Amino acid sequence: MAFFKKLKDRLFKSSSRIEDGLDAIVSDGGTEDAPDIPAHHPERTPDPAPDTVPAPQPVEVPAPKPDIVPEPEPTPDPAPVEVPDPAPDTPPLPDTPPQPGPEPAPTPPREVPEPPQEAPARPAEPMPAPTPTEIPLETLSQADAPAKSGLLGRLLGRGEGKVVTRRALDDDMLEQLEELLITADMGVDTALRVTANLAEGRMGKRLSTEEIKELLAREIARIMEPVARPLPLYAKTPQVVLVVGVNGSGKTTTIGKLASQFRAAGKKVIIAAGDTFRAAAVEQLQIWGERAGVPVLIAPQGSDPASLVFDAMTQAEADGADLLLIDTAGRLQNRADLMEELAKIVRVIRKKDPSAPHNTLLVLDATTGQNALSQVATFQKLADVSGLVMTKLDGTAKGGVLVALADKFGLPIHAIGVGEQIDDLAPFDPEDFAVALTGVEK
Asked: Which of 68, 191, 248, 415 has its CA 20 to 30 A from that of 262?
C-alpha cells in the first residue's frame, strides 16, 4: 500500500488531466442531480419524519383501550342478573320460615361468578401489548436513520448536500472520451477499444465523472492483467539478464534497484558495466553496486563491450553467481550502427551460453509517450526483448503509453519505477496502476 500511495502521488498530474477532462466532458450537456444513495436513505428524511410521527401519536392506542376495557364490565352485569332467576324457582316452598337465609346464599354466587368472568377478560387484554411495540418501532426508525447515514457518509466520504452531475452516454460523448484517452498517450487503437468496451450496454445511461473513472480503471486493469508478470527465475546459473534501452531511460538505476532486491531475496548477484564509453555511467553503476552490496565488473574506458560481457559471464560462472545483470550503453532505435553493436553483444553471449540471455529487459521512459512503441518494435527485432520495465512514472508522465504497449505487444511488464530511491521499484500491479492513472479513490 505504501508503494501504491507513492505511485498515486507521483501520477497525480496524469490523473488530474484525465479527471479534469472527464469533468469537462460530463459538464458539457450534463445536468446536476442529487446523489442517489442519500436521496432514498433516511439521511434525507429527518424533516418529514417528525411530521409523520406526531400523526400516529395523537391517535395513541391508550385512548381506545379505555373504550375496550369497560365493554367486558357490562357483560358480567347481565350474567349475574340471570343467576337469580333460578333462585326464584326455589321459593315454591313457602312453608320454610327462614327465608332470609336463602337471600344471603344467592348473594355469594353473584360475587363468585364475577371473578371468573374477570379472569377471562384480563387475558383477553392483548391490546396493551401492541402499543409498546409500536413505540419502539418509531424510536428505532428514528435512531437508525442517523446511524446508517453516518456509516454511509464515512464509507462514501461525501457530504449530505453534494450534487452530482451526470450526462447521458451518446456518440458525441464517446468521441470526446476517445480524444481524452488519445491525449493521455493511449494511442488511437487502444483508445477506440477502451471506449467501445466502456459503451457496451451503457448507451443512453446517465453517468457521472466518478462512474466513468471507475469504468475506465476496470477496463485498463482488464487489458493489463495478462502482462503483469514478475521477472522469472530459472534453475540455470548464472542467469544472464541483459538490460537495454535508449539514452537516459533509467537502465543504470533500474539495475541497481534490481540487484538490491535480488540480494535481499538471498541471491548472489554480479553486475557488469557494459557501457564502456561513458566514464560517468561506470561510476554511477559502481555507486549503485555499493548501495546494493553487489560487486561491479568494469573494463577500461573505450574497450569492446562484447569482450567485457564474455569475461563477466566467465567470472560469474566461476563465482557461482545466481544472477548476472549486464548494463549496456544507451542507444537510439534509429541508430543502425549502435543497434548493430547491441546485436554483436547478443551473439557473444549466445556463443558462451546458447540459452542466454535468459532475460532481455527493455527499460522505457514513461515521458517518451508514443515513441515508446517504436522503441519496443526495434529492440524486439534485434535483441529479442522478453520483458519491459517502465521508469519515471512521476508527475510529468501521462502513463497511458503503458496501456498501449500492453494492448499492442503483450510483452510482460515486470516492474515500474516512480523515483530515485533504491526501493522505488516494485512489481507491476494492474489494478493499482489503473486506479492511480484514472484517479479513482481506493
From this structure: 248
15 pLDDT above the threshold of 70: no
Q: Report the predicted TM-score, pTM, of the whole model to 2 decimal places.
A: 0.68
Q: What is the pLDDT of residue 381?
A: 87
CB neighbours of residue 156 within 10 Å: 13
Region 383-403: mean pLDDT is 84
φ, ψ for residue 246, nearest 5 deg? -80, 175
User: pLDDT tens for residues 54-109?
Assistant: 444 544 544 444 444 444 454 444 444 444 444 444 444 444 444 444 444 444 44
Percent above pLDDT 90 for the chain? 46
pLDDT tops 90 at residue 150: no
Predicted confidence (pLDDT) at residue 402 exceeds the cutoff of 50: yes
293: which 3 cell numbers? 552490496
Q: Which residue has the higher pLDDT, 335 or 257?
A: 257
Among residues 222, 245, 434, 238, the alpha carbon closest in space to that of 333 is found at: 245
CA–centroid distance for 349 within its chain: 44
Confidence band for 309, pLDDT divided at 50, 70 and 90: very high
Distances (CA, A) of 48 to 51, 52, 53: 5, 6, 9
The three-state DSSP-derived secondary structure of the chain is CHHHHHHHHHCHHHHHHHHHHHHHHHHCCCEEECCHHHHHCHHHCCCHHHHHCCCCCCCCCCCHHHHHCCCCCCCCCHHHHHCCCHHHHCCCCCCCCCCCCCCCCCHHHHHCCHHHHHHHHCCCCCCCCHHHHHHHHHHHHHHHHHHHHHHHHHHHCCCCCCCEEEEECCHHHHHHHHHHHHHCCCCHHHHHHHHHHHHCCCCCCEEEHHHHHHHHHHHHHHHHHHHECCCCCCCCCCEEEEEECCCCCCHHHHHHHHHHHHHHCCCCEEEEECCCCCHHHHHHHHHHHHHHCCCEECCCCCCCHHHHHHHHHHHHHHHCCCEEEEECCCCCCCCHHHHHHHHHHHHHHHHHCCCCCCEEEEEEEHHHCCHHHHHHHHHHHHHCCCEEEEECCCCCCCCCHHHHHHHHCCCCEEEEECCCCCCCEEECCHHHHHHHHHCCCC
